[in-house]
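#random but structural
TW: two for the price of one
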Amino acid sequence: MQVGFVGVGAMGAAMAGHCAAAGFDVAAYDTDPDMLSAATRGAVSATAGLSDIATAADVVICVVSTDDQSRAVVRGLLEAGPKPGQVIVVAATNHPGTMIDLAETCRAAGVGFIDAPVCYGLQGAKQGKLISLCGGTAEDIETVRPVLMAYSRSVEHLGPTGCGQLGKACNNMMHWAACVANYETLALAKACGIDAQSMRETLLKCPARNTTLERWDTSKFTWHEKDMDVVLDLSQQAGVSLPLFGLVDQLVKRLGPDRVRELLHEDSAEYLGLPIPVRPLEDVVKN
């Protein structure tokens, strides 16, 4: 099976590499020539453009950043005349509505389409242990399952087109809520005299442990605005009130890797623009 990758930054390059290692014939394209060169030094071959991917690939994996980029890639593939039986997979995190629109366009052109955003980020991509959350027809997902399994620990079919992105939104909700909860928890520990990093290491042994806390030192706090915009837009469209996540949306914007590093490893830290006072517990409870 011939597999095409469109977008071979850090994530896409790692995913393409795993597919090649699994025995697939993998070709890649990226608008950034440096990224393309870096991703095609091994078994992955470089192509000159989307038309080469469109006419040769049985499965195309799109690993770009934005909805507009996904639309542009799909449009370019369809305009180039895709290989018969081709299935396009959007592995980017996009809005479910975008996926539904693109699926309709692909269906009209006789091309399969699924949305399959991934969880576990760059480390998961490097290790080949992502989770692919899929929306689309069972037939299309079974066609691409061997390819997705080359870089995934599991492939989950959540429902029709768009449900993969909905599943990713649900995951992101829990992740960003955990970011806020973890920070406030460790801020209290620090304010009352317990070293925040020691408290974190202890919590990882307790029922309160969570994956976000495990990866706290490497969290980049990227895409939270985009992720929460999707969540809140979906909640409005669905008529579901999510008051907690309205707060999470505002609070997580005040956090970032610098704030986490200060909290865990420096003498002073802040939250919501205010310093976190650090005193022994005895002084706190006696005041």
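TW: number two ↓
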Amino acid sequence: MKDPHQFNHYKRRWGDRGDGWRIRKIDPFCRMIPYFLRTRMDSQVFYESNVQIAHIEDFIKKYRTEIPDLSIMHVIMAALVRLFSQRPHLNRFVIWNKLFARNHLSIALTIKRSLCDDGEETIIKPYFQLTDTLSDVVAQVRKEQLASQPGGQQNAQDTIAKLLNYLPDCLLRFAVFLFRWMDKVGILPKALNKISPWHSSIFLTNIGSIGVESIYHHLYEFGTCSLFVAMGKKSRKKQMNTEGEVQDTKSIALKFVIDERVCDGFYYASSMRLFEKILANPEQLFAPPEKVVVDEGVGTKRIDV
């Protein structure tokens, strides 16, 4: 049975994985890079974007009645979903020296059940379609958050972590080794892949919610996540405009850590410019994108999207 979270762009062929299609149309040099840069730690690239938020806050005030839970984090998540709909190479990943196009879009997000030093943390992993609007993103995130609140049910990540915690060290070490090996050869059970935060398109952390400035967070070697985004706290600065006047500005620093093996630097740079352009006009997020761009590196397209 087809997973409703997965895209239906291509037919699965030999060499594809359950969570991604093998990239077959690729420059020979780009194909060689993962054999030399074998890990994500070797391939990390860092980028910072200072997002002006005064207009986003006005936007949220304007539409808060229509979307009660709307926040800056939701706007940024919706902008990332829209970005991935137009720049599909960002949703690629490298595993076992091979390049794949992910067949779903998910964002792993760390949340605290309560805002105190010893408050328990958990991870949610909402899935999105490339045509999702801002309202869709808010609804999906809210659904996952409600399921992970103290009064809600324990989510799947919590359950797996609790079960593994019962294992003695030797068995836990073997279990993790087995998971890593199965993931490398593409036979990790779908149930684990579906809930694993390390198998997501984006890992997002909103440390600004606890009053901390943004940081560069490393990528994980386990899993397939090629992009980590950290949101910092709101900052006020004085800047000079084009007319030579000093103005107060409000911004949030977004720090990206990306795997350079999934696409070239020009593609990343143009993608970041598009992301900032989307955030400059958040009203466009109320409507689906006019067109979804499909990764041409996979091969024959199955359907038009």
